[in-house]
Amino acid sequence: MINKEVISIFVDNQANVLSRIVSFFGRRGFNIDSLTVSTTHNPEISRITIVCRVDEQELRQIITQTEKLEIVREIFVLDKEESLYRELLLMKIRVDKTKRSGIIEIANIYRAKVIDLKKDSLILELTGAPEKIDNFMDILSCYDIVEVCRTGATGISRGLNGKTQESYDDIA
Question: What share of the chain is helix, strand, coil (3-state, %, to 5)?
Fold first, then answer.
């Protein structure tokens, strides 16, 4: 059965690391649904979060083969029940004075922020779980959406029992 999995990879923070990881996935035929990368509180380590749809055998293959790369410090799958996921959405909508208040009302329900307002458009910002972002976009699809910019999902384990970058600071 194919599942959407969120994979977290701690890697050395150096040139070409991202391209090596992405090409590794591509060469093996795995499609990446979303990808986020950032340094951690240790500037020598970056965290790559990849969302992909794979079955159990493919997931084991990804973990096993990615662990072998010398740039990889740790790779693990975030447990759906024990992790939090967030995305950021920026959405530009064409508006006139008759539609503006309705859009702002919907934005308030979802706790989105109006970050830019012009006579003919507005830009909304929303942060939340991927499902919340999907629902928000669906609700607003009846309006004249001009542009959408959406980050990929990022995630973190709840509590202190899961894997954390702090565990790998001694390796640096």
Answer: 35, 40, 25
